[in-house]
Every structure is written in structure tokens, then in C-alpha cells.
Design a protein that fits this description.
There is one protein chain. The N and C termini lie close together (about 10 Å). Helix 2 packs parallel to helix 3. A five-stranded parallel beta sheet has the order 2-1-3-4-5, sandwiched between helices. Strand 1, helix 1 and strand 2 form a beta-alpha-beta unit. With about 140 residues, the chain is α/β, with parallel strands linked by helices. The longest helix has 26 residues. The protein contains five helices and five strands. The protein binds manganese (II) ion.
Length: about 140
């Protein structure tokens, strides 16, 4: 079974470390970026299986970054989970309406994060099953 690669775009080093440790502990390979601009470049080049996107970032914010990812055929298919301190209902609504595939509120719950990440990969595995049987 291939090792899934997760790109973390997060400018807060404490949160970046927490997300990184939580994902590595579950066996995922992790790439990290401190800005949306760099994150977009890494996503394009490395084609991660999932992106965790902070909303509040220096320069381009996470919502603008998501729009660019979804507008580019090379990155459109990569699921993106928003990670944000914006727990207010109106902001959560705006974030999900922007097209994110999931949402994690800060402070991060490692258990909730694992559940959501696993859910996204289980879904993808299901979609890919016929191809895997052909390869086996
Ligand atoms: Mn931030």
C-alpha cells in the first residue's frame, strides 16, 4: 500500500509541528509550507494526496489559495481540508462554500483530524479499487 503524502500549509510553527507530528504518527509522509504561494508551487510539483490549508496566512490567504488550486487542472483533484481558528458559524459556512473538502477548527483535535483524513483516503481508495484489482 502506497504511503499517502499530505501537504501542510500553515504559518504558525506550533500548529505546523502539531499537524506534522499527528500525521507522521499515522504513517503519512508530510510536506510543509509556511505560505500559500509556496504551498501552491509544492502542490503543483509534488502532487500530494491531500492538503491541509490554514486560512489566515501572510500574503495570499487559504481561501484564495484553494481557488487557485481548484482553477488549475493539475491540482484540481487534490482534496483540501481547511484548518482555521475561525470557529464562527458564518465563517465556517463561507469556508465550506468556497469548496473545501473538509474543515478542522483550531485548537486542533488530533483525533478529529485523523478521522477526517482517514475518511478522505478511504473514499479515494474506494474510487480507485477497480484499478488496483487490475494491477494486482
Ligand atoms: Mn495562520
Amino acid at each position: 500500500m502506497g504511503q499517502e503524502v499530505v501537504l501542510i500549509v500553515e504559518d504558525n510553527e506550533m500548529n505546523q509541528l502539531l499537524l506534522c507530528d499527528a500525521l507522521v504518527a499515522q504513517g503519512y509522509r508530510v510536506l510543509v509550507s509556511l505560505s500559500a504561494e509556496e504551498g501552491l508551487a509544492i502542490a503543483h510539483r509534488e502532487q500530494p494526496d491531500l492538503i491541509l490549508m490554514d486560512i489566515g496566512l501572510p500574503g495570499m490567504d487559504g481561501i484564495a489559495a484553494l481557488r487557485r488550486l481548484k482553477a488549475n487542472p493539475a491540482t484540481r483533484g487534490i482534496p483540501v481540508i481547511a484548518v482555521t481558528a475561525s470557529a464562527m458559524r458564518s465563517e465556517r459556512k463561507e469556508i465550506l462554500a468556497a469548496g473545501f473538502d473538509g474543515y478542522q477548527a483550531k485548537p486542533i483535535s488530533v483525533r478529529d483530524l485523523w478521522t477526517e483524513v482517514r475518511g478522505i483516503f478511504d473514499h479515494r481508495t474506494g474510487e480507485r479499487r477497480p484499478k488496483r484489482e487490475d494491477e494486482a
